[in-house]
C-alpha cells in the first residue's frame, strides 16, 4: 500500500472533517426544538466559523499550492489544488443550504409577529424613522469609495461587508462605487413597534433605501447595490526589525493582516456581470481563491447578536450557574483549598471562584508570588484587573501571556501593555511554541515556610467564554503537583533546560510518550485477559501518530470511546483497523471545550484533565499541560459527567464512515447531556 493509499483509507482529511463539524453547527439552525432566535444565532456561528476557516485553513492549503507543492502527505492523501476545489464545492452547497434555512426561520419569525423587512417593504412611518436614523447614526460613519479606472482599488478589509454600487449614468457611462458597512453600527435596526408586530431592517437594506441621499450629486438613470465580501489570509507576518519589541511586532502584524492575500470572494449571485468582472479584475482574484456566489446578505456571523426583542420564549432557558459545596465567597478560598481539592465545571458552576481566588491572592499579605498563563482574556477582564491589583500591592506577579492567540492578539496586547505599566513581569511564551496551557500557582508564606496553592484548567481564564464553554478547573494545594507547575514557569525562563515532571504530562516534552505508555498499559491488560478501556473527550484529533496508536489499541481489543466536538481525522468502526472505536460529537447550547483522558475501568482508572487536543501542534508545537486527578471523589465526578455526555441521545451525532452527522437515536430514555449534567450538580447540592 502506498503512502497516499494509506492516507485515503486510514484518515479523514482535516479540512473536510472541519467542514463536517460546521455542518453539525448548521444542523442546530434546522432543529425545530431549538428556540427560533437561537437558531438564527447558530446560523451566525456557522458563518463566523466559516470566515475563520478560510482565513486560516484554506489560506494554508492555498500557500501549499502557490509554493508548487502537492501536499499529499500533509493533507491526508489529497493534492492541495484538488482539496481547494473540494472545499469550495462543499462550502457552496452548505451556503446554499444555510440560505434556505434562513428563509425558513424568517417565515417562522413572522408567525411570531417578528418581521425582517427590506427596502421594498418600508411604509411611510418607517421611512421617516429610517431617514432620521440614517442622518444621525449611519451617515457620519459611512465610508463611500468612488471607483474609476485611474484610481487603484483600496485594500478591502478582511471580512468587511461592502455594497458594490453600479450607476448607469445619463450619458450612458457606468460609475461604480463601494459602500463599506460600518462595523460600529449594529447590523440590525429595530424599527418602531406597530401594535403586536416588531420590525427589523438590516443596515444593508437601510443603505439601499438611502442610496439616493448618498449619491445625490451624480446624474444617474438607475442605481443598484449588491453585497460582496473578501476573506484574507490571517497568518501573522513578523518583521525582523531588532529595534522593535515583541509587542510592537505582533501589533504591526495584526494590522498587516487586514491587507493579507485574499483567499475567498463571496458575492450576491444576482450582481450584474459587468460589476462582478470589474471588481474581480480590480481585486486581482485568481483561480486559487475560493469564489462563492451567495445570497443577498453576507457576514451572516452578525446573526450571533440578533436582537432578542424581549422575547425570552424564543431563547434558551437561562441556567443559573451553581455554587460549589465547600467554597464560599464570604470566606477564604485558600483555607478551603488547604484541606480539600475542588473541581469547577463551567458553565454549570460559576467561574467567579477563579476571580475570587485571584482577588484574595491580590489582597492577602501572606501571598508573595502569583504566576499564571493567559491565552484568551475577556474584553473586560476581572482576571487581568486582579493581577494588576496584586502587582500594585507589592506581590511578584508573573504572567505568561500568549500574544499569538489567533484573532485575540489585539485584546491580549492591550492587557499586556496595561500589566507591564503596573509592574507585572510578562513572559511572551517560548520561541517557536505557543503557550496554550492554563494554570496558576501562588506562593504563600505560612509559619515561615512557603506553601503553594493553584489551579489547572482545560479552558481559558475568560469570564465571557466561561458562560458558554464547558471547561474543568481543578483547585489544589497538592505540593507535588504544584511543584511541577512551578517547573513549567522555570522552563519559560530557561527553555534551554529539560525539566523532569513527576506528575504532569507536558508538551512539547513528553505528551506523546506519556500517552503512549498509558495506551500500552491498556493493551497489556487485554493480553492478560483483562478489560482494556480508554475514554477520551477533546475538541479535535488530527495527529496521525496519535490516531495510529489508537488503531493499534483497537486491533489489540481495547475498547475506546471518544467524544470529539470538532475535527476528527480518525475513522471509527472499520473492521480490522478501528472496530473497537466509537465516536460521538455533541453540539448544543454550550460549546464542548473540556479535554479529558480516562484510562482503565472506573474503579481503577487514571484520569487527566488537559489543555491539549490530539493535534500535531498541541503535541509538538505548544506548551500544554495534562494534570492527573488523584482525588477519588473528583475522579468519580469526572467519570460520572463523562458517562452522561456519552449517553446523550438527543444532541449527539455519530461520527462514522458515512460522514453524514447522523443523530444517535436509540430506545433508551432521552438524555440531553448538557441539561443532565446541570441536573447532576443540582442534585449533589440538594443531598
Provide the descriptors you would attach to this structure in a database record.
687 residues, alpha/beta, 19 helices, 38% helix, disordered N terminus, nucleotide-binding
Would you give an account of this structure?
It contains 19 helices and 27 strands. With 687 residues, it is α/β, with parallel strands linked by helices. The model is unreliable at 1-7, 236-251 and 253-259 (pLDDT under 50).
Strand content: 15-25%
Radius of gyration based on Cα positions: 27 Å
Uncertain runs are 1-7, 236-251, 253-259
The main β sheet shows up as:
10 strands, mixed
Number of helices: 19
Give the mean pLDDT.
89
- N-to-C CA distance: 59 Å
- Based on secondary structure, the structural category is alpha/beta
SSE layout:
Blueprint: H1 3-10, H2 14-30, H3 36-66, H4 80-111, E1 114-117, H5 124-138, E2 143-147, E3 161-169, E4 174-180, E5 188-194, E6 197-202, H6 203-209, H7 211-214, E7 220-232, H8 246-257, E8 262-268, H9 273-283, E9 290-294, H10 333-339, E10 342-346, H11 352-363, E11 367-374, H12 382-392, E12 396-401, H13 409-421, E13 425-427, E14 434-435, E15 438-446, E16 449-457, E17 469-476, H14 479-493, E18 505-507, H15 511-527, E19 533-538, H16 544-556, E20 559-564, E21 581-586, E22 591-592, E23 595-599, E24 606-610, H17 616-620, E25 622-628, H18 632-646, E26 652-654, E27 662-663, H19 673-686
Parallel strand pairs: 1-6, 8-9, 11-12, 12-13, 14-25, 17-22, 19-20, 20-21
Antiparallel strand pairs: 2-4, 3-4, 3-7, 5-6, 7-8, 10-17, 11-15, 15-16, 16-17, 18-25, 19-23, 21-26, 23-24, 24-25, 26-27
Helix pairs in contact: 2-3, 2-4, 3-4, 8-13, 11-12, 15-16, 18-19
Amino acid at each position: 500500500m502506498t503512502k497516499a493509499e494509506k492516507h485515503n483509507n486510514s484518515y479523514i482529511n482535516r479540512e473536510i472533517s472541519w467542514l463536517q463539524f460546521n455542518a453539525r453547527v448548521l444542523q442546530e439552525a434546522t432543529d425545530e426544538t431549538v428556540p427560533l432566535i437561537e437558531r438564527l444565532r447558530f446560523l451566525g456561528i456557522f458563518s463566523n466559523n466559516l470566515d475563520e476557516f478560510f482565513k486560516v485553513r484554506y489560506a494554508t492549503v492555498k500557500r501549499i499550492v502557490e509554493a508548487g507543492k502537492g501536499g499529499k502527505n500533509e493533507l491526508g492523501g489529497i493534492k492541495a489544488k484538488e482539496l481547494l476545489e473540494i472545499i469550495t464545492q462543499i462550502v457552496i452547497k452548505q451556503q446554499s443550504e444555510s440560505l434556505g434555512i434562513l428563509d425558513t426561520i424568517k417565515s417562522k419569525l413572522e408567525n411570531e409577529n417578528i418581521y425582517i423587512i427590506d427596502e421594498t417593504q418600508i411604509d411611510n412611518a418607517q421611512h421617516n424613522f429610517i431617514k432620521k436614523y440614517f442622518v444621525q447614526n449611519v451617515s457620519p460613519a459611512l465610508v463611500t469609495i468612488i471607483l474609476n479606472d485611474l484610481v487603484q482599488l483600496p485594500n478591502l478589509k478582511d471580512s468587511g461587508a461592502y455594497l458594490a454600487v453600479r450607476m448607469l449614468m445619463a450619458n450612458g457611462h457606468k460609475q461604480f462605487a463601494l459602500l463599506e458597512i460600518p462595523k460600529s453600527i449594529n447590523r440590525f435596526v429595530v424599527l418602531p413597534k406597530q401594535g403586536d408586530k416588531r420590525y427589523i431592517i438590516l443596515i444593508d437594506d437601510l443603505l439601499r433605501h438611502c442610496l439616493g441621499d448618498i449619491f445625490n450629486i451624480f446624474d444617474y438613470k438607475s442605481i443598484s447595490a449588491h453585497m460582496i465580501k473578501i476573506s484574507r489570509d490571517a497568518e501573522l507576518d513578523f518583521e525582523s526589525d531588532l529595534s522593535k519589541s515583541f509587542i510592537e511586532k505582533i501589533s504591526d502584524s495584526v494590522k498587516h493582516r487586514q491587507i493579507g492575500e485574499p483567499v475567498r470572494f463571496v458575492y450576491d449571485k444576482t450582481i450584474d456581470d459587468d460589476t462582478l468582472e470589474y471588481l474581480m479584475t480590480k481585486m486581482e482574484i485568481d483561480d486559487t481563491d475560493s469564489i462563492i456566489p451567495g445570497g443577498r446578505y453576507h457576514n451572516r456571523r452578525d446573526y450571533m447578536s440578533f436582537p432578542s426583542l424581549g422575547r425570552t420564549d424564543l431563547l434558551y432557558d437561562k441556567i443559573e450557574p451553581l455554587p460549589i459545596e465547600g467554597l464560599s465567597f464570604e470566606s477564604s478560598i485558600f483555607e478551603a483549598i488547604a484541606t480539600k481539592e475542588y473541581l469547577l465545571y463551567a458553565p454549570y458552576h460559576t467561574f467567579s471562584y477563579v476571580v475570587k481566588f485571584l482577588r484574595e491572592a491580590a489582597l492577602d499579605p501572606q501571598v508573595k508570588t502569583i504566576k499564571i498563563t493567559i491565552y484568551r482574556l475577556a474584553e473586560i477582564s476581572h482576571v487581568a484587573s486582579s493581577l494588576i491589583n496584586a502587582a500594585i500591592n507589592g506581590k511578584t506577579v508573573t504572567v505568561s501571556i500568549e500574544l499569538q492567540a489567533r484573532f485575540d492578539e489585539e485584546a491580549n496586547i492591550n492587557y499586556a501593555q496595561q500589566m507591564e505599566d503596573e509592574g507585572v513581569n510578562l513572559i511572551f511564551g517560548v520561541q517557536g511554541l505557543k503557550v496554550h496551557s492554563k494554570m496558576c500557582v501562588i506562593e504563600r508564606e505560612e509559619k515561615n515556610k512557603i506553601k503553594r496553592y493553584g489551579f489547572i484548567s482545560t479552558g481559558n481564564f475568560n469570564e465571557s467564554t466561561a458562560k458558554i464553554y464547558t471547561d474543568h478547573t481543578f483547585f489544589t494545594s497538592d505540593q507535588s503537583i504544584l511543584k511541577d507547575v512551578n517547573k513549567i514557569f522555570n522552563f519559560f525562563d530557561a527553555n534551554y533546560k529539560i525539566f523532569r515532571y513527576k506528575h504532569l504530562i507536558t508538551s512539547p516534552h513528553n505528551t506523546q510518550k506519556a500517552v503512549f505508555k498509558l495506551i500500552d498499559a491498556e493493551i497489556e491488560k487485554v493480553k492478560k485477559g483483562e478489560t482494556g478501556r480508554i475514554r477520551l473527550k477533546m475538541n479535535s484529533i488530527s495527529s496521525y501518530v496519535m490516531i495510529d496508536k489508537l488503531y493499534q489499541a483497537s486491533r489489540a481489543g481495547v475498547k475506546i470511546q471518544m467524544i470529539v466536538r470538532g475535527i476528527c481525522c480518525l475513522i471509527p468502526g472499520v473492521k480490522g483497523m478501528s472496530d473497537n472505536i466509537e465516536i460521538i460529537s455533541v453540539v448544543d447550547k454550550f460549546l464542548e471545550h473540556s479535554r479529558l483522558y480516562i484510562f482503565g475501568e472506573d474503579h481503577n482508572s487514571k484520569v487527566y484533565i488537559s489543555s491539549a487536543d490530539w493535534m500535531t501542534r498541541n503535541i509538538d508545537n505548544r506548551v500544554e499541560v495534562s494534570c492527573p486527578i488523584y482525588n477519588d471523589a473528583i475522579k468519580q465526578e469526572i467519570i460520572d459527567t463523562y458517562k452522561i455526555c456519552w449517553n446523550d441521545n438527543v444532541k449527539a451525532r455519530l461520527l462514522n464512515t458515512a460522514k453524514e452527522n447522523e443523530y444517535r437515536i436509540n430506545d433508551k430514555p432521552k438524555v440531553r447531556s448538557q441539561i443532565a449534567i446541570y441536573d447532576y450538580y443540582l442534585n449533589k447540592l440538594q443531598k
